[in-house]
Amino acid sequence: MAKKIVECVPNFSEGKDQKKIDAIVAEIKSVPGITVLSSLADADHNRLDVSYLGEPEAVKTAAFAACKLASKLIDMEKHHGQHPRMGATDVIPFIPIQGVTMAECVELANDVGQKIGDELGIPVYLYESAAKTPSRTNLADVRRGEYEGIKTEFQTNPNGPRKPDYGPTTMHPSAGFTGVCARMPLVAFNVNLATTDVSIAKAIAKAVREKDGGLKCVKAMGFVIKEKGIVQVSMNLTNYLETPIFKAFEAVKAEAQKHGVQVIESEIIGMVPLQALSDTADFYLRLEKFKSDQVIEARLIE
Amino acid sequence: MAKKIVECVPNFSEGKDQKKIDAIVAEIKSVPGITVLSSLADADHNRLDVSYLGEPEAVKTAAFAACKLASKLIDMEKHHGQHPRMGATDVIPFIPIQGVTMAECVELANDVGQKIGDELGIPVYLYESAAKTPSRTNLADVRRGEYEGIKTEFQTNPNGPRKPDYGPTTMHPSAGFTGVCARMPLVAFNVNLATTDVSIAKAIAKAVREKDGGLKCVKAMGFVIKEKGIVQVSMNLTNYLETPIFKAFEAVKAEAQKHGVQVIESEIIGMVPLQALSDTADFYLRLEKFKSDQVIEARLIE
């Protein structure tokens, strides 16, 4: 039985003050059983993006502790930055990695959301797979108007469209609003094409992306890669179980063929779940009954 | 920087006495930092096969401790079993898994071999990548004659062809001889073909295996799978860096095509290193600059 592993990627509205940044990351690291994958502070965005792994209970504990600390350190009344934001702890996504279902991550989001609402007095919105209403599925909709806009709407009509899923119907003095969600890990996957004609990359992107009738859970755009003299179909796979990497690759390859263009190479940007890789090997090798726990290294996590 | 992980797969000449089997496995498990992947005792073979992982120092400590205990528990003068064997601890292979070179595993084999020779008084033969002479590369050559035959040759001429790489030139009273090696992990990989004609599987096996001029580090045989009404090319890939899984698969597929036969499916039997899987994804997706440490789960091992 594989250990249950959840990833959490909280974002905080502080990207300049190194002491505060360090304190928040240290708060997460101090929870036993937590592995911090990365912490990235951006001064222009004035935002801190932390990624960490652990078993569900530890991940929950760390998320609440970091949110609590951020509510003391960050004042949304004074916060400015280029990135859209609505709270000191802006978002807390829970992501199933191993031995965990999306339903369990939705439960985590509810547990943490309720605790933040009840104990810290911060209004909480649940979004993506944790959304309790379709209008809150997309984070962009939830965060529309950002801190200042949401505040005005919320104060005008606390039980209206901005009524939180958890927490009070009164403002927290400084911490703003926090979005909590459950979602699949995002796989950033690009395919490079042997042409300088960006219109082909754009046409292929349009053909493969969900928005325009293509593959489920695929976002795609076409770009020029000037330094290489080629073009790129840049994709975000928001659910690698719905549309696996190999399916996106084969779709781009087939579309490229229609244009008489060769696929040069592809790239996975950043992290990828083991399952997404083993599904790829599985597909091309036509593997029978292969399980991720046949991977030697996976056994070290149990 | 990835943590250094070595696999060790010692084999002991005891497959019947559960108390002794448990004691040897417990001895390995008792070393801090060791993860036992499997322990398989076979009564007919009268042999125990243990597989465990850890950092180099821990793996070394566990190998020596288990060998020491086995030398007390197992008497080769009384041992019988179907599997070829030469010692209480028959073989100790060290296998690089992550962040470790073959050269480092050869060093481990030498360290442990020397310690077994010096401290336990057991003659040690180094084989495979750890062999100090070509005649000891193959375990089958080293173990030829088994315990009884090697003992006679050794006692007749202790400084002759049976002179150990480490340890005394006199017999240990009961523990026999121990082979210590460094080798790559073995990937057991089968490809099933849509025909009942086993001569095709045999011909393909012959075409792809190293022995008959095929792919490096590939052993292959052709079999009938009666219950499925098909045939199988069953392969052992003894070095997945020399001949990766995808290369073996594509070679079998190409040979099958010559015979007008379809590949139905393939299977990986048992464990496989993450690198072997990610190399497969890499090949088919033409991945640029992909590293195994982009796999989320791999970060939990560091």
Structure in words:
The structure is a homodimer of 302-residue chains. In chain A, helix 1 runs antiparallel to helix 2 and helix 2 packs parallel to helix 3. With 302 residues, chain A is an alpha+beta fold. The relative contact order of chain A is 0.12. The first copy, chain A, has eight helices and eleven strands. The mean pLDDT of chain A is 95. In chain A, strand 9 and strand 10 form a beta hairpin. In chain A, 33% of the residues lie in helices and 24% in strands. The first copy, chain A, has two domains: 178 residues, Formiminotransferase-cyclodeaminase, Chain B, domain 1 (2-Layer Sandwich), CATH 3.30.990.10; 114 residues, Formiminotransferase, C-terminal subdomain (Alpha-Beta Plaits). Chains A and B meet through helix 7, strand 11 and helix 8 of A and helix 7, strand 11 and helix 8 of B.
CATH architecture of the largest domain in chain A: 2-Layer Sandwich
Cα separation of the termini of chain A? 8 Å
- pLDDT averaged residue by residue of chain A: 95
Q: Largest chain interface and its two residue counts?
A: A-B, 44 and 44 residues
- Helix tally of chain A equals 8
How many distinct folded domains of chain A?
Answer: 2
Q: Please write the string of helix (H) and strand (E) elements of chain A.
A: EEHEEHEHEHHEEHEEHEH
pLDDT under 50 segments of chain A (min length 5)? none
Percentage of residues in strands of chain A = 15-25%
CATH topology title of the largest domain in chain A:
Formiminotransferase-cyclodeaminase, Chain B, domain 1
Biggest sheet layout of chain A: 7 strands, mixed
* Radius of gyration of chain A, taken over Cα atoms and rounded to an integer in Å: 21 Å
The 3D shape of chain A can be described as globular
CATH homologous superfamily (4th level) name of the largest domain in chain A: Formiminotransferase, N-terminal subdomain
